[in-house]
Amino acid sequence: MDRVRVSILGATGLVGQWMIKLLANHPFIEVAGLSASPGKVGSKYGDVVHWFIPGDIPEYVRDMVLVSTDPADHKTVDVVLSALPNDVAWSAESKLVNAGINVVSNASPERMNPRIPLINPEVNWEHLNILREVKNNWIVKNPNCTAAIISMPLKPIQDLIDALHIVTLQAVSGAGYMGLSYLAIDGNVIPFIKGEEEKIDIEINKILGKQFLDRYEPWSRPIYVTATRVPVKYGHTAVIHAILNRDTDANQIIERLRGFRSLPQEKELPTAPREPIKVLDRVDAPQPARDLDPMAVSVGRVVTRNNVLRLVILGDNLVRGAAGITILTIETMKALGLL
Ligand SMILES: NC(=O)c1ccc[n+]([C@@H]2O[C@H](COP(=O)([O-])OP(=O)(O)OC[C@H]3O[C@@H](n4cnc5c(N)ncnc54)[C@H](OP(=O)(O)O)[C@@H]3O)[C@@H](O)[C@H]2O)c1
């Protein structure tokens, strides 16, 4: 397959808009269909979208007519990219798979299904290999945005880690376009995000574990998470304290983080960051307003005291945590001959 034809469910939402932006002029992924909620089906994309991500609506989608999520509207594509809300996603996605259509999804339902790979390409692209044994059509899940961002810098040091204590400071855009009212978050910090702490724990353990055809072996490390929402538009920050299994010098950690490369870098995939983990030397880094990289995870404040390591990390929840990871997964699957 030279070109990969895709359609996007939830194309008018925050994640869908980023997919459209990232796929404008993509060398081999072609957007062949766009879908939104039933009230917008039949309208031209440019007439009904509330475009609010940086830049203008790419010309190539302005006149595309929105379709439904029904399999009949996606018969001619190779993969459907789903950015549907969690409460409607599984019903639509399972209908597509049952109708013989492959799906890569951002939504949370079935992420922990032992037969469904949960993929952060640089971290666990090998988990995609189970699809070689799958006889019918497949669905691949993207991790929760925070789990995607955090699992990256853990990968090159995972053999050193016994336990993790994490506090997140998550951007408002993580809750979607209609997610939080201005009054609720302006000048405020909300120390609770429903379901988030559990997802970060179990998803990191799945991503850093081993995937077999019908089961996975989790990494099985205790991960204690406190998730907070802060008045930042874009970019999730996390303060991580890792309990290590031996005393380790911070320079050794930095060397491992800076040296980390994986299949997407080796294959020079179009959406892969050349340096997936950026260790920043500035004492006050990383900051969402200054250091946000679309696909790389930024790391600062690297300190060890005996066997305790502190890292502050930052990643783009909409790109690295959602739209960009979806596209990088497709590129990785093509590089592996799975598409
Ligand atoms: N925001 C993030 O940082 C982030 C990160 C990782 C994963 N995710 C996940 O990605 C998914 C999308 O998130 P988002 O932030 O882009 O949400 P969003 O901004 O609220 O967008 C939701 C999209 O789904 C469409 N939609 C709503 N109800 C529908 C229905 N019944 N049938 C068909 N389409 C429907 C909406 O269309 P209308 O415009 O017509 O309403 C819109 O295009 C969610 O599952 C979320 O958990 C989000």
Topology of helices and strands:
Blueprint: E1 4-9, H1 14-23, E2 29-35, H2 45-48, H3 59-62, E3 79-82, H4 86-98, E4 102-105, H5 121-124, E5 139-141, H6 145-154, E6 161-170, H7 182-185, H8 196-207, E7 210-211, E8 216-217, E9 223-229, E10 236-244, H9 250-259, H10 263-266, E11 277-279, H11 288-291, E12 297-305, E13 308-315, H12 319-335
Helix pairs in contact: 1-12, 6-8, 6-12
Bound molecules: NADP nicotinamide-adenine-dinucleotide phosphate.
Residues 10-16, 36-37, 40, 69, 83-86, 88-89, 106-108, 145, 173-174, 176-178, 317-318, 321-322 line the site of NADP nicotinamide-adenine-dinucleotide phosphate.
Query: Which CATH architecture of the largest domain would you pick?
Result: 2-Layer Sandwich
- Give the oligomer, counting copies of the same chain as homo and different chains as hetero: single chain
Domain tally: 2
Structural class: alpha/beta
CATH homology superfamily of the largest domain? Dihydrodipicolinate Reductase, domain 2
State the separation between the terminal residues, measured CA to CA: 7 Å
Classified by CATH, the class of the largest domain is Alpha Beta
Please give the share of residues in helix.
Answer: 25-40%
Strands ordered across the widest β-sheet: 9-6-10-13-12-11
What binds here, in terms of ligands, is: NADP nicotinamide-adenine-dinucleotide phosphate
Give the helix tally.
12
Shape designation: globular
Q: How many whole angstroms does the radius of gyration measure?
A: 19 Å
**DSSP E strands, number:** 13
CATH level 3 topology of the largest domain: Dihydrodipicolinate Reductase, domain 2
